[in-house]
Amino acid sequence: ASRSFGPGRATAVAHANIALIKYWGKADETLVLPRTSSLSLTLDGLATTTTVTFTGARSDSLSLDGEEQSGEALRRVSRFLDIVRGLAGIEQHAQVDSRNDGPTAAGLASSASGFAALALAASAAAGLELSSRELSRLARRGSGSACRSIFGGLVVWRAGHDDLSSFAEPLDCPIPLAVLVAQVNAGRKAISSREAMRRTVASSPLYEAWVQRSAVDLEDALSALRAGDLGAAGTIFEGNALGMHATMISARPAIVYWEPDTVRVLDAVHRARDAGLPVWATMDAGPNVKVVTSAELATEAAAWLSTRLENIPVSVNCCGPAARLISE
Ligand code: 2P0
């Protein structure tokens, strides 16, 4: 953290990350400890820029893409600021101004970039100088996946067993990767990932099997990447994500984020693979499909999919940087 932003105010940028091995389900709701470790790629697009100003106001305020927020969105940010105030030993309320590059709450990791940027801006504005590991633990309290967006490139979040041991860290990426986003629907999802996870853990008969397999998936995927075997890694990424959706679909009541176009994209990804392109699908808590591919062939793969998926925009995202403070 830097002192050059003046006491009381700081601006930070963080990017979304897409999990290759997924986080789905908590061991501890309050501390946001996950049941499984996860692996992700921080992207170069889909950024959130957040300014935090501690003021003499009587309460916290939150503006998201220029719109003043109330209700649950504000309460969640306020609870997070309570943690920062506790660490810094201050009591002032804060004004939070946050802007997203991409759509909010559409399953495109806006809470990951959002809470990573908030953790960095709020801690700097409060005068804290946290290490990146401490920042990752702090961001985790806001939203689990946010702990991974503190770092750039390939990132692993080791589940750990308590607040101190659950944090993300960057890994060398032996294969340059890219992620295509096939945007099936940019609307807000009807059910939050937080609620969807809770219901899955509580009621899916497939959940424990997915948790067990996930630990194997992570180690096998890391070995495959180290061996330069994108085919083996991609197969594991796709299986891990579709397995996670199987746990949701088998929850009671079922959580089905898929739309008809979701299946069209999944089918196109299979056909692209049959045509020799290195592409594997992954999905998060929404109907959009992300496609893991090599950085080298990303443009070609996006063009191949685009021409076969009328009305579904396909964007190319490369590896992105760590969260950082900026001058306003
Ligand atoms: C992930 N997702 O690993 C998984 C895959 C969505 C599907 O992390 O409750 O917003 O705030 O910890 O981090 C989305 O969940 O959930 C997510 P909370 P979060 O990227």
Automatic annotation (TrEMBL):
Domain of life of the organism in this record?
Answer: Bacteria
Output the Gene Ontology terms for molecular function: ATP binding; diphosphomevalonate decarboxylase activity
Q: Extract one GO cellular component term from the record.
A: cytosol
TM spans, by residue?
A: none
Biological processes per GO annotation: isopentenyl diphosphate biosynthetic process, mevalonate pathway
Q: Which InterPro entries does its entry note?
A: GHMP_kinase_C_sf, Mev_decarb, Mev_diP_decarb, MVD-like_N, Mvd1_C, Ribosomal_Su5_D2-typ_SF, Ribsml_uS5_D2-typ_fold_subgr
Query: Which residue range or ranges hold the Mvd1 C-terminal domain?
Result: 179-306
List the coiled-coil residues: none
Tell me which EC number(s) this protein carries.
4.1.1.33
EC class (word) = lyase
Give all residue intervals belonging to the Diphosphomevalonate decarboxylase-like N-terminal domain. Answer: 14-168
Which controlled-vocabulary keywords does the entry list? ATP-binding, Lipid biosynthesis, Lipid metabolism, Lyase, Nucleotide-binding
Pfam families reported for this sequence: MDD_C, MVD-like_N
Family per similarity comment: Belongs to the diphosphomevalonate decarboxylase family.
Provide the protein name.
diphosphomevalonate decarboxylase
From what organism does this protein derive?
Propionibacterium cyclohexanicum
